[in-house]
Specification:
mainly alpha, 0% strand
């Protein structure tokens, strides 16, 4: 029951829609009517409010961190599954009819909370791919895939299954982005297209 409680708490923390809450507090339009309709930081950036986008990124990461730290405290063996639950909560929040974001920032948070070197590998992969290609989607997918690879390489084999499921989920949620990337239609960050 303790493990189940940790996972349930992680899901509920992950499902807090900070992007939607912050844009409402900031007086912008309903975030779900902008761009992709997602509640994550990339879509908040499309409102033109860089500060709100940065705050959304931070809070979406911190809810992932909090979910894993709580699990470490009450059921350490459940920590990797709490990480997965937090990302699932972000992507499929109960409060919003199970329509949320794509999990990139929350995955960063859980990666750092599970083991900081995994988080560092995640951040390095995101940064490198973003700087080279300027696609937020490609950077997020690359970082998500890097996390279980880093966990395996660093000896954190117990985290690999949950991080692999997270990576597959992030890839699946980016399937439309993948299609646009293949067709050369995905907009780069900072472009007007």
């Amino acid at each position: 029951m303790t493990a189940a409680n940790a996972i349930a708490i992680a899901y509920l923390l992950g499902s807090i829609p900070f992007g939607l809450l912050l844009t409402r507090l900031g007086g912008t339009q309903d975030l779900r009517s902008v761009g992709s309709g997602n509640i994550g930081a990339t879509n908040v950036l499309r409102t033109g409010r860089k500060g709100l986008a940065a705050a959304t990124l931070l809070f979406d990461m911190l809810k992932g961190v909090a979910a894993v730290l709580i699990a470490w405290r009450i059921a350490p063996s459940a920590a990797p599954w709490a990480a997965l639950a937090a990302v699932v909560g972000h992507c499929f929040p109960v409060w919003l009819g199970f329509r949320g974001g794509k999990g990139v920032a929350t995955t960063a948070g859980v990666a750092f909370a599970l083991a900081w070197p995994i988080g560092a590998a995640y951040a390095a992969a995101w940064t490198l791919v973003f700087l080279v290609f300027r696609f937020s989607s490609l950077a997020g997918m690359s970082a998500a895939v890097a996390a279980p690879l880093a966990a395996a390489a660093l000896g954190h084999v117990g985290f690999v299954p949950a991080l692999t499921v997270i990576a597959l989920l992030v890839l699946w949620l980016h399937r439309e982005n993948i299609g646009r990337l293949r067709r050369g239609e995905e907009p780069r960050v900072g472009s007007k297209a």
